[in-house]
Q: What sequence folds into this?
């Protein structure tokens, strides 16, 4: 199996998604100038970080602060598959402020974490970046991941300010009008006056779905009406804010159970 390395920089999130596949090499003692949030997907490795030794396997999360020196060597014959997010110091400080309301210099107190849910969150965000998903969906996934990491594994015991569950009618009205646009968390946060992190948690608790899932539902309902009126799938996709016809078709079938064309045909026959 040949070795593969891929790097994607996301202009919306200002972070780098990085992957290694089929890697057998040993990495000598080194450090990075940025934060690393990584996950072992396949293979086993011996990690030594700041004088502590670890045995890593699939599902293990790795958290490196800037200048955390470490070495990494293979264990066994299975090559390494690995995904990671590389985040500049100032960028993570910005996200930490959005999440906690405090000016912080985040410092991970654990370099290795075993948490399947966090590993899944990281993998999901990586896929969204590679697929060039819509901004709101990527932002939502990023805040869900960073919120857990910062609050559980950073150097301060950070608690949320106590607030009542907000009224999001004005936010819903905005999404209902601007559903076809590339809506961002900055816009939604500015409308309701809450931090992005609080917005995601509070909206989800009150509405039962996340902001992005609410946007998806609005788009699908608009698309269904267009298909009922005889519009083509590509017209509905582009008019309702989907990236392309393929993304629209996959999303539509996932939630409706039919392809857009199958759904359209029902109303053409009527």
A:
């Amino acid at each position: 199996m040949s070795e593969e390395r891929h790097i994607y920089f996301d202009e919306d999130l200002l972070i780098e998604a990085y992957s290694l596949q089929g890697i057998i090499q040993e990495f000598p003692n080194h450090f990075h100038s940025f934060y690393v949030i990584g996950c072992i997907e396949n293979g086993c490795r011996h990690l030594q970080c700041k004088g502590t030794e670890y045995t890593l396997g699939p599902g293990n999360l790795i958290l490196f602060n800037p200048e955390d020196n470490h070495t990494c060597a293979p264990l066994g014959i299975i090559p390494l598959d690995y995904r990671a997010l590389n985040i500049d110091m100032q960028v993570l400080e910005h996200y930490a402020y959005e999440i906690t309301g405090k000016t912080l210099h985040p410092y991970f107190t654990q370099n290795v974490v075993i948490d399947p849910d966090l590993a899944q969150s990281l993998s999901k965000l990586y896929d969204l970046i590679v697929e060039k998903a819509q901004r709101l969906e990527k932002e939502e996934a990023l805040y869900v991941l960073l919120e857990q990491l910062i609050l559980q594994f950073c150097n301060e015991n950070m608690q949320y300010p106590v607030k009542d569950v907000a009224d999001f009618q004005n936010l819903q009205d905005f999404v209902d009008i601007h559903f076809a646009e590339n809506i961002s968390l900055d816009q939604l946060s500015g409308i309701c006056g809450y931090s992005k992190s609080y917005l995601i948690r509070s909206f989800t608790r009150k509405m039962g779905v996340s902001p992005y899932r609410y946007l998806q539902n609005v788009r699908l309902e608009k698309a269904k009406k267009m298909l009922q009126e005889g519009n083509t799938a590509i017209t509905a996709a582009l008019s309702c804010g989907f990236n392309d016809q393929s993304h629209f078709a996959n999303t539509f079938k996932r939630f409706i159970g039919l392809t857009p064309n199958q759904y359209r045909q029902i109303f053409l026959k009527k």
User: Anything to note?
Assistant: The mean pLDDT is 90. The first strand starts at residue 4 and ends at 10. The first helix runs from residue 89 to 100. Residues 50 and 69 are 6 Å apart (CA to CA).
